[in-house]
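Practice problem: predict the structure.
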Amino acid sequence: MSNTQLYLSIGLPMLTILVALLVQLVAIFGSRSSVENQIAASIQAVEKQIAVSIQSLEKQIAASNESLGKRMDSFDDRMGRLERSLDDMRTTFVKNHTERLARLEERVFPAAS
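Answer:
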């Protein structure tokens, strides 16, 4: 067997194996970058959906705050009316009580004349 035949019998299969491994590595790196691109696109889509959900939630919170503000305003109005009513009752009570006390004093302590 000559040197050429030995190199061809050993070197050719090894070269074929190395080329096959090189092709597989190129395919792996190609698919890896494809997977990374898909992952990046998925992350971007999820972030976009999260942003839309957050905006929707913020709108709902703003609407709730607005409705709560209206309810609190009406509650303040009712409490103001109640306070005015209580003040009127107190004033009327004190006035009536003062008049009754004055009449009682006149009956018990008639004017010295």
